[in-house]
Amino acid sequence: MALVEEKSSSSPLALLTDNAISAALSDTYSTLQERRKLLGLENPGTVDNIAREVQKDVLLSNFMFSGLRCDLQKVFSISPLFRLQHGLAMGSQALPPWQLMALYGTSNVFMQAAYSSDKSLTAWGNLRWTPRFVTKTQTSIDARQAQAMVQIENEYTGEDFSASLKAISPSILEGGLTGIVIGSYLQSVTPRIALGLEGVWQRAGLNTKPETALSYCARYKGTDWIASAQYLAQGSLGASYWRKLSDKVEAGVDCQLQFAPAMGAGMFGGIRREGTTTVGVKYNFAASVYRAQVDSAGKFGVVLEKRVAPPVTLTFAAEIDQWKNTHKLGLAVSLEGAPEELQEIAERADTQNQLPPPI
Question: What is the CATH number of the domain that holds 192?
Fold first, then answer.
């Protein structure tokens, strides 16, 4: 009678789990998970940041500017983080004359918005659902453009892999899916080697055929150096090398090579190869950071950030193009204000193991 009662009280879905096939799959999965843990694999980062140490930390792509710039920042609270910033610029083609930016962030929520004098609005909003799963959004509205840009990304960070799915300006109002969808996956196969791929699907309108592309990437992490390579389906190849020379000095090399049909060569003509190699170095001093780079196109640039006082930071940028005989100069002043009690709270928060905002 006891056996009959146990069978009758079991769930109707027990047949899907209490069988030889599901048990074998569960045992196989558990065995693979144990072997992966024994390999000592680490999270390799994401495909978008596969060359972050060189392209975003050492080289000047994210730091070069021209003209005069002044940033006035005011921190109202640390936990949660709330900050307002006024930006003034003059003589710059990339920066607006005036910009107001607000930032709010906790360990699970990050929100930032920027409104410029040219009536453009850009907003970022990130939400951390779990310690490993984050949703990132970005919206850009510009009066000079007919359509707004919306980007939604879901990113999952595993113990030894990272996966993300991104949609740029998706729409189904025309009766079908249009926009750009990007999916990427990066997996550590050994403690030093990581392999990944990225797929792109895009369709401008229903009257056009969708286009797809697949890219491959690899990353090798040494003791004090990192090398990465990425091949794009459009016919371009990128390679980078980063090395930590000392506690305060970092160096990097980035090479970008594009393959395209030669002009006027016809369908069976030759392939034109164009490429640029950039070498950069970064010095971290006690109160300043110095970056310099030179590339094969004849450009030489430097950026110096120096904190002259706790609330004041000066930034000097310069770039010279030897072949075109042109140059750019930039000078920025950043003033940051925060009460002393907030600075003490920030120092105490740094000593605690808190998750940073999902930026």
Answer: 2.40.160.10
Q: CB atoms < 10 A from the CB of 105, how many?
A: 19
Q: How many structural domains is the chain composed of? A: 1
Distance CA 312, CA 85 (A): 14
Which H helix or E strand runs over 22? Answer: helix 20-39
Asked, for residue 1, whether it belongs to a domain, the answer is no
Q: How many Å apart are CA 313 and CA 357, to the nearest integer?
A: 24
Domain residues for 91?
Answer: 17-350
Peptide bond into 80 cis (omega under 30): yes
Tens digit of each residue's pLDDT (9 = 90 or more) over 132-190: 999 999 999 988 777 789 999 999 999 999 999 999 999 888 788 889 999 999 999 99
Residue 356 lies in a domain: no
The residues near 327 (Cβ < 8 Å, ≥ 6 apart) are 318, 319, 320, 321
Q: Assess if residue 4 is contained within a domain.
A: no
Round the CA-based radius of gyration of the chain to a whole number and report it.
25
pLDDT tens column, 314-353: 999 999 998 888 999 999 999 987 665 555 554 554 445 5
- What is the per-residue pLDDT across 37-71, written as a single tens digit (0 to 9) for each? 777 788 999 999 999 999 999 999 999 999 999 99
Strand partners, 68: 90, 331
- Separation between Cα atoms, residue 357 and residue 131, nearest integer Å: 11
